[in-house]
């Protein structure tokens, strides 16, 4: 849902870059799960207070009391449980749901697997990897023709030599 960008102030507040359509949407969740640097379960933190700060958010989380403590969270992902997210419309998906899907073009040629999604300046961008080849494919309706979560497949209007 977002990433901790930096400490904010000296009292343990965090500056967070949201990955949601609406920056305020993240503030609607009373509990954030902060992913650690090591593999394993994220740590839950109760949101005490938060507000918009330009294109980002600033938030005070339970248990983080100083700038030094807040600094340890820099670069970590902010998550919420899947079952707390609002339902999507039939033609919508959450971006995290496409990670791991096989990507093929309209002719059925395999292009790789979605390894990640980044927020571009205009639209999300899929990072599709096949061996040593990495493709960056804009996640827009003109290019992404079909998302089939059940078949774990994404069909794109994209050529193998792009």
Largest sheet: 6 strands, antiparallel, barrel
Number of separate domains: 2
User: Which CATH architecture of the largest domain?
Assistant: Beta Barrel
Q: Span from first to last CA?
A: 30 Å
The SS-based structural class is mainly beta
The first-level CATH class name of the largest domain: Mainly Beta
Radius of gyration, whole Å: 18 Å
Shape: elongated
Order of helices and strands: EEEEEHEEEEEEE
Q: Helical amount among residues, as a percent range?
A: under 10%
Provide mean pLDDT, rounded.
90
Strand order of the largest sheet: 1-2-5-4-3-6
Count of individual helical segments: 1
Q: Which fold name corresponds to the CATH topology of the largest domain?
A: Elongation Factor Tu (Ef-tu), domain 3
CATH superfamily of the largest domain: RimM
Low-confidence stretches: none
Task: Please give a quick description of this structure.
With 162 residues, this protein is mainly beta. It folds into 2 domains: 83 residues, Elongation Factor Tu (Ef-tu), domain 3 (Beta Barrel); 62 residues, SH3 type barrels (Roll).
Q: Can you offer a commentary on this structure?
A:
The protein has 1 helix and 12 strands, in the order βββββαβββββββ. It has 162 residues and is mainly beta. It has 2 domains: 2-84, Elongation Factor Tu (Ef-tu), domain 3 (Beta Barrel); 95-156, SH3 type barrels (Roll), CATH 2.30.30.240. The strands form 2 sheets. It has a 6-stranded antiparallel β-barrel with strand order 1-2-5-4-3-6. The longest helix is centred in the middle third of the chain and has 5 residues, at 67-71. It is elongated, with a radius of gyration of 18 Å. The relative contact order is 0.15. The model has no long low-confidence stretch (mean pLDDT 90).
């Amino acid at each position: 849902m977002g990433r901790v960008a930096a400490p904010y102030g000296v009292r343990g507040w965090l500056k967070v870059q949201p990955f949601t359509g609406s920056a305020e949407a993240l503030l609607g969740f009373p509990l954030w799960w902060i992913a650690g640097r090591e593999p394993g379960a994220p740590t839950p933190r109760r949101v005490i207070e938060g507000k918009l700060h330009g294109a980002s958010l600033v938030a005070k989380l339970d248990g983080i009391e100083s700038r030094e403590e807040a600094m340890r969270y820099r670069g970590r992902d902010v998550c919420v449980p899947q079952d707390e997210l609002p339902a999507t419309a039939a033609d919508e998906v959450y971006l995290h749901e496409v990670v791991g899907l096989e990507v093929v073009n309209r002719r059925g040629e395999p292009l790789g697997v979605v390894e990640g999604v980044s927020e571009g300046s205009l639209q999300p961008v899929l990072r599709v990897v096949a061996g040593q080849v990495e493709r960056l494919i804009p996640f827009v309706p003109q290019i992404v023709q079909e998302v089939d979560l059940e078949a774990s497949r994404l069909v794109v209007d994209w050529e193998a030599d792009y």
